[in-house]
Every structure is written in C-alpha cells, then in structure tokens.
Amino acid sequence: MLFFIYAIIGMQVFGNIMLASDSQITRHNNFRTFFQGLMLLFRCATGEAWQAIMMACVKGRPCDPLSKKDKPECGSNMAYAYFVSFIFFCSFLMLNLFVAVIMDNFDYLTRDSSILGAHHLDEFIRVWAEYDPNATGYIHYTEMYDMLRNMDPPLGFGNKCPYRLAYKKLIRMNMPVTEEGKVNFSTTLFALIRENLSIKMRPAEEMDQADKELKETIRKLWPLHARK
C-alpha cells in the first residue's frame, strides 16, 4: 500500500520530467508509468542513490516535449518531502515490522512451557471435541497435526510453530495407534504433557507404568478435572 500510494503521487508530480542519460531520470528510471514508478521506489527503498534521484526531481528540470506542458520547467520542490518521507517509512516502520515478526517467532521458540494449569486441560478437551464430536475418545492420527496447531502452548503447538519442529515433536511423542489408525484421548494428553514438561520419560516397554504415574500426578494437581 505504501508503494502504491507513493507511485501514484510520483506519476502525478514527477511524470513529466524529461528523460536524460546524464540524469537519474532515464528511460529505465522514471515515473512515466505506474510500473516504472514502483521500480524506481523499490530502488530508493534499497538505498541506492535515492538522494540523486530526489535532486533530479526538484523544480527547474526540463519538461518532456510529449507532455505538452505550458510551463517550460517541470519537477517540484515537493520532492524533498516526498523522498525523505518515503525513505523514513521504509527504513524505520517497515524495518520495525520485520523485526517484530522475527521477535514474535523467537518468543514462541524460547517461551517457558513449564507452567501447566487446569485451564490448559480445558482447552485440550474443547479442541479435542471439535475433532471428536461423537465423544468416542479417539481421532485419526492424520488429524493430530491440525488439532495441535489449533491449540496454544504449552499443551498444543500453536499456529506459529514451524512445520519441521511440529513434526519432530509428534515423532518424539511416540503414541500408539490402533488398527484403524486412531489415537486415544488419554494417551495423547499424557504424551503431550511428557513432551512439553519432559517428565515421566520412559522406554517404550515401560510407558504403561509411566502413564499410571502421570495419571496419579494429574489427579493431585487437577482433582476436579480428574473426577470428570
């Protein structure tokens, strides 16, 4: 939107300047058309000779004969405010936008997932119910990825979790799958708690005992939910 607005303004104010090979306004670098205006602004956004382009657009430049302008001079002193404001928005606002996106993703990867409360169990039950409307206690394993992406951390992955990291977590969870290709509600919950809190980690042959111990722990932490 920023480039679109500035390209339209540039066409109206600087589109009639004569093209010259010894100037920054050439047949490859001008405001004659909307596309060429976008390309010129993109060049300015990279910081390449934007000051020289600005000076080539100030008042007193010769007009293109095809423009049929009554006055002999084209350009405008508005070029100073036009280019300086454009560089300001590109260099500061858009740079801050990219930094904010990077920091937001970095925050996801480094956040503390060790705090698990009863409201997380409520969210797990709510999201699971969307994929298991008949309350069978089972969903197909192919729905696991979408379900956990729709569930916020620490139990779920969240919609900002990178795909590769999400699949690595699913592999580490090592959940048993039935002959119909389905996973169990309780088994999935226990696997998520073990994965995110790194507790009750056991070899595969001792996983049943680990689940029993984890179930007792959940009953102590969430007594009201455990009785449901």
UniProtKB/TrEMBL annotation:
It comes from the Eukaryota. GO terms for cellular component: presynapse; voltage-gated calcium channel complex. Keywords: Calcium, Calcium channel, Calcium transport, Glycoprotein, Ion channel, Ion transport, Membrane, Phosphoprotein, Repeat, Signal, Transmembrane, Transmembrane helix, Transport, Voltage-gated channel. It is found in: Membrane. Residues 119-154 form the EF-hand domain. It holds the Pfam family GPHH. It is a multi-pass membrane protein. The chain crosses the membrane at residues 79-103. Residues 1-15 form the signal peptide. InterPro entries: EF-hand-dom_pair, EF_hand_dom, GPHH_dom, Ion_trans_dom, VDCC_a1su_IQ, VDCC_alpha-1_subunit. GO terms for molecular function: calcium ion binding; high voltage-gated calcium channel activity. One of its GO terms (biological process) is calcium ion import across plasma membrane. This is Putative voltage-dependent calcium channel type a subunit alpha-1. It comes from Amblyomma cajennense. The lineage of its organism: Eukaryota, Metazoa, Ecdysozoa, Arthropoda, Chelicerata.
